[in-house]
Design brief:
By secondary structure, the chain is mostly helical. 72% of the residues lie in helices and 3% in strands.
């Protein structure tokens, strides 16, 4: 099958799957079988694009041209392929997990859940394979609307309030900032197409370009930069599979992917790294702050402040939510460093964080399902009751912290090298300190689970372990294994992303 045909198939399958799920709502087994089948076919279609992209091809097609020079078009490049593989691959495991979780909890409106989940994956793939800013914006908004019913799924007052916060912040930032940034880019560059090296270099002075970068950074609310981060902890009222979708599979990854893609293909790495000629001492060789200097400060502040807040949260999902806010800023920081190693590290962290964080949320849901516990302070001794779940939690935690032999070690290494290459040693300090803080909010969970005396109500039942259902347990074990495998295959991911920086 040709590249454009595979691309069209990858984009169409989840949307068709959502329709099929809605039609099969009266037959749960068939509905869920279709979800898994479509997920597998979507992954095969996305993976089928990899050999062509690795060979240097950029398969794509134009769907429509609503206005002269404005196209609804798709193209697969290395960064989009990586995001597409993450989204489609984790969709299958999340679907298995959701089947066990939703049935175990006896959740209502399961057909709506699976249909909206499929639509969210379709939107995420549209973001991944967008050939220009117009296409990306349309699918970015589609992702917001398709996930709103998932956040509000339980219909409680708390769920509806969280969903309103989710929708309000994401829509206000995208319409108020991101759309304006896209219109400004069109006015300056005369195109919205993504191009290697960027489309703004030589067309904007540093001061207005820094303002435009701010509109993009804060307009992409899904990246959860402070102060536009409140939607993410507010959305934690959703079921665990939705939390996994928000934090690992689609939503936040679409946000940081967008910022990284804008940095590479709209501004260009060289333009972002260029010194501001208006800086007081810019006449001296090598002096002058780079265009993205302010974004480095914002990203560093966000990753440190979010980590500090995570230390104070006793609710496990809330602790993981603030962890996500901090970890996303690693990717933004890598883009703002505007060095080869920084950009590659940021791209790698999309995959590394996805595998680790989805495992952590799977584990949180499994603990809630099997032991009915949601607070860190309640987890004493639970590792002896749920050894597989808590072993997976430990592996994923070590990856998030950045220790080998786990995937997170590689992405953090590249980011640290990028900070040194850029001469941004305060970023290196922030990276090291945030890793120590992540030890502070993740290690206590592991220590309580395996080494603290079991609480009376949490003691192991007669007869041994009591894990979550197999459909929940197997996916979290596989994603934990994925964190190990990503350490092994990290050089291949780096080679895939090398063309982003001319490698």
């Amino acid at each position: 099958m040709s590249g454009p045909a595979l691309l069209a198939l990858a984009l169409a399958l989840p949307a068709l799957g959502a329709l099929g799920v809605a039609l099969l709502g009266r037959w749960p087994n068939w509905r869920e079988a279709l979800t898994l089948l479509v997920g597998a076919l979507t992954l095969l279609a996305v993976a089928g694009l990899a050999p062509q992209v690795l060979a240097g091809a950029r398969p794509g097609f134009e769907l429509a041209a609503p206005l002269p020079g404005l196209r609804l078009a798709f193209e697969v490049e290395p960064l989009g392929l990586l995001f597409g593989l993450v989204a489609s691959g984790l969709w299958i495991l999340t679907s298995f997990y959701a089947i066990g979780y939703m049935r175990g909890h006896g959740e209502s409106h399961q057909t709506r859940f699976y249909a909206c989940f499929a639509l969210a994956i379709a939107a995420a793939l549209g973001v991944a394979f967008a050939a220009n800013l117009l296409t990306l914006f349309l699918f970015y908004e589609a992702l917001t609307f398709s996930t709103f019913p998932l956040v509000a799924h339980r219909g409680s007052r708390e769920a509806l309030a969280g969903a309103r916060t989710y929708l309000g912040i994401l829509l206000s930032t995208s319409i108020g900032f991101l759309l304006f940034a896209i219109i400004w880019t069109w006015q300056v560059a005369g195109t919205l197409d993504f191009r290697p090296g960027g489309i703004l270099a030589g067309r904007m002075a540093a001061a207005p370009a820094a303002l435009l970068l701010a509109l993009y950074a804060f307009g992409v609310g899904k990246a959860a930069l402070m102060p536009f981060h409140r939607w993410l902890p507010a959305a934690m009222v959703a079921p665990a599979p939705v939390s996994a979708l928000l934090h690992a599979v689609a939503v936040v990854k679409a946000g940081v992917f967008t910022i990284l893609k804008v940095a590479v293909y709209v501004f260009g790495v060289d333009f972002l790294a260029a010194p501001d000629s208006s800086a007081p001492d810019s006449s001296a060789p090598g002096s002058g702050a780079p265009l993205s200097q302010w974004l480095l400060f914002v990203a560093a502040a966000t990753l440190l402040l979010a980590s500090l807040v995570a230390l104070t949260r006793d609710n496990l999902k809330a602790r993981l939510a603030y962890s996500t806010i901090g970890q996303l800023s690693y990717i933004v920081l890598g883009a703002a460093l505007a060095t080869g190693a920084g950009v590659i590290g940021a791209g790698m962290h999309i995959a590394m964080h996805a595998a680790g964080k989805i495992t952590l949320f799977f584990c949180a849901g499994a603990i809630d399902l099997a032991a009915h516990k949601q607070r860190v302070s309640e987890l004493n001794g639970i590792g002896r009751r749920m050894p597989f779940t808590m072993a997976a939690f430990a592996i994923a935690s070590l990856s998030i912290i950045g220790l080998p032999p786990l995937g997170g070690a590689w992405s953090k290494w590249f980011l640290a090298v990028g900070a040194v290459d850029a001469g941004q040693f305060f970023c290196l300090f922030a990276l090291m300190l945030s890793s120590l803080l992540s030890v502070g909010y993740l290690a206590p969970v592991i220590v309580r689970a395996f080494f603290a005396p079991a609480q009376a109500e949490g003691a192991a039942p007669e007869g041994g372990m009591r894990e979550a259902p197999l459909l929940c347990l197997a996916p979290l074990c596989l994603t934990a294994l994925g964190s190990i495998l990503l350490f092994v295959f990290a050089p291949r991911i780096a080679a895939l992303l090398a063309p982003l920086v001319g490698g």
